[in-house]
Design brief:
alpha/beta; Rossmann fold; 2 domains; eleven-stranded mixed β-sheet; six-stranded parallel β-sheet; 12 helices
């Protein structure tokens, strides 16, 4: 990746930032997560734009006393809350670098006819310094070996949506939307994407290639009633965050943001996986990614109870049931969308749910599981059952 990035930069390409959607905890919000000072450096606030370059040069030095230069108010604020920043640095032709990208709600681009393969043919740039500004605080972070930025920084931002201004040394700029949870947040939603919110018929390899690489963005189909269900849940509960947890690649996040905005899904952080092989195998474990992410969210927000929504085409019933057994206080309800006959056949070669999923669904009424499980073919049927359980009015 370093060689490719250097090669294309010699051709005149420059770094740009692809912002995802971050999240965080407001001051006073119960959380077991805290920023790691080794992953960021604090820059002194400035009022004049012409002083930014001097700040960056000073911050990129190897002086170990950089963090100790914070003023007392900033150090106190750093302990009050935090924000997880998620983005990726890639190199692109200059004309694309000048485009300011954003993941702020309400600013998503209109759905357009773009082949999916364009999302995957990118050149990621590792080790790039990126400046962040949030709620008057300025930080410097670096992209990792794969070009990603995944760092937790201190924050004084209150509950709600906020913007993180991001920029590189060569003019790449982006605005990252951040969902900050406050002390009043008691319930939230974690949703799968593939075959739960959007019809993709995964994980059959040929269909996965068709849906991810060939299909136009505007030809994708939303699962009936799911967007309406999520909006109803948001209207029913005060300060109701929505997280999207998927085994899909980070590359498709811009596509999903446009798709969700077009079909009326609530805006929210997306927790995806990297695309391509690892140092231990050709493919990443999607199940392990979901299990790890669920436990991280439980650690991030211990006072929040989640509504878990997935489908019976992959491992969602098993993953959710295991999570309920291990951490029952963190789950309010599990909702499983049942695939149609054709979707089930395409997903795993059988007209019904897999044996592991059937066993998980059958065991939801056992004495060790007190959390309500509902199952239905679409969002409207799930909403009806949620009303029967008192989750919706």
């Amino acid at each position: 990746m370093r060689w490719l990035s250097s090669f294309f930069q010699r051709l005149g390409w420059r770094e740009r930032i692809e912002p995802y959607v971050g999240y965080g905890a407001a001051p006073g919000m119960a959380s077991h997560t805290s920023p790691d000072p080794d992953t960021y450096r604090v820059l002194e606030p400035v009022s004049a734009s012409d002083a930014e370059s001097e700040d960056v040069q000073r911050s990129t030095s190897t002086d170990a006393t950089t963090n100790s230069s914070l003023s007392a108010p900033t150090q106190a604020a750093a302990k009050a809350g935090w924000v997880r920043v998620l983005a990726r640095v890639v190199v692109s032709p200059k004309r694309r670098v000048l485009l300011r990208r954003t993941s702020v709600p309400g600013r998503a681009e209109a759905l357009r006819a773009v082949r999916g393969w364009r999302n995957f043919f990118t050149v990621q740039s590792p080790g790039v310094p990126v400046r962040l500004m949030l709620a008057g605080q300025r930080f410097l972070v670096h992209s990792d070996l794969n070009g990603y930025i995944d760092v937790v920084i201190p924050s004084v931002a209150e509950a709600g949506w906020h913007e993180v201004e991001m920029s590189t040394l060569h003019g790449g700029q982006a605005t990252l939307g951040v969902r900050v949870l406050g002390p009043d947040t008691r319930a939230g939603l974690i949703s799968d994407i593939d075959d739960t919110a959007i019809v993709t018929s995964l994980p059959r390899p040929l269909l996965a290639i068709w849906n991810s690489f060939i299909l136009h963005e505007d030809a994708r189909t939303a699962v009936p009633g799911m967007a309406r269900l999520y909006r109803q849940l948001g209207a029913q509960h005060n300060d109701f965050p929505v997280f999207y947890l998927s085994t899909g690649a980070w590359n498709v996040v811009p596509t999903m943001l446009r798709f969700f905005a077009h079909h009326g899904f609530p805006h929210g952080p997306m927790l995806m996986t990297d695309f391509g092989p690892t140092n231990t195998g050709f493919f990443r474990s999607g199940r392990e990614h979901k299990e790890r992410s669920l436990r991280r969210l439980a650690n991030d927000f211990p006072d929040v109870q989640w509504i878990l929504v997935g489908d019976d085409g992959q491992h969602d019933p098993v993953i959710y049931r295991d999570f309920v057994v291990d951490m029952p206080d963190h789950v309010r309800m599990v909702a499983i969308r049942q695939l149609t006959f054709s979707e089930a056949v395409l997903a795993h070669g059988m007209p019904t749910a897999t044996q592991a999923n059937r066993q998980a669904e059958e065991n939801t009424d056992g004495p060790t599981v007190e959390t309500a499980f509902v199952m239905g073919p679409d969002g409207d049927d799930l909403a009806r059952q949620m009303r029967e359980h008192g989750l919706l009015s």
